[in-house]
Model the fold of this input.
Amino acid sequence: MSALFAKPRVLLTNDDGPPGHESPYIYGLYRHLTQDLGWDVKVVIPSSQKSWIGKAYHIKEIVGGRYYYPREPDGMGDVAEEPRPLKEGEVAEWILLDGTPATCANIGLHNLYHGEIDLLISGPNLGRNSSAAFALSSGTIGAALSSALSRVRSIALSYGTVVHPTPDTFHEPAHALGARIIGRLWADWGADAGGLRRGEVDLYNVNIPMIPALLTEPGLTICWTRIWRNSYGRLFKAHPSAAARAANAETATVSAAGPDSPGEPPQGTQAGILDKKAGKKDLGALVFKFGPDMADLINPAASSVPVGTDGWAIHKGWVSVTPMRASFGEPVDWDADTEADMEARIWKMKL
Done:
């Protein structure tokens, strides 16, 4: 490990896949990491959109891969089955894997660049990953969790959609800010006595709201936060039968990038056309489609969001930086460290 050196060796991944309409941010951040910070960055990303898949692994499928050669100015590039020299205008060789973000992280760390990575960065995600409801579903955070479980410093970075559509002029200042935050975290990584890696914080979750203040001289306020423990309800809608869909061509859908992507309504994905067109006969067919009602998560009432949480920070137009552990949450009053302590926690009742 080169943790004592100023410039880490980085593995960059995401859950939105290669540069394109649903993955507009990864190439810009890559340029800022390599050019502004001068870091050595390897890129291993899913070959297609993999949002809302969490820290899942495909354990039965064979994971194939291809080589990707991004070009200026937007990172669009060619795909090749075999590695080859860079052509004119190509800036790097990336790897696309037919797997989940967590799969990309693990294969990148242990198969492709074993022992060569000091820091994993996952993102920038197209949409926020603030609050428990989003974080527990996030492929972006899932990749960072996967890396943290391999005892590698990890940062998940997301750009929260606020303005619809998000102006392209927001992209560069967001990348510059994201790179500066990542650089600061790397240089002054926090301590956590319960951390997996020598008492360090396992991973950080960073959310940058895509708002006009990015273009101002003061920029955005950055604050340490905790996760807003919220919840969600229905995530799926009854899907009309094939005959009903043919008779009604305009069926609603959710962007593959998730319910906070710029293509979704500003008020959050709503209950609507699919629910209205799916009757009892359609329900009997047991056909459902992802179509969450996220209005209360995208635009919650200010009074419902606890002060100091990531959701509160995003609501204020601030950047949230949340230290996390690569574990399921535990009660904060858990203080049993010895077998003697555990005596008080043994169930005394008979079942």
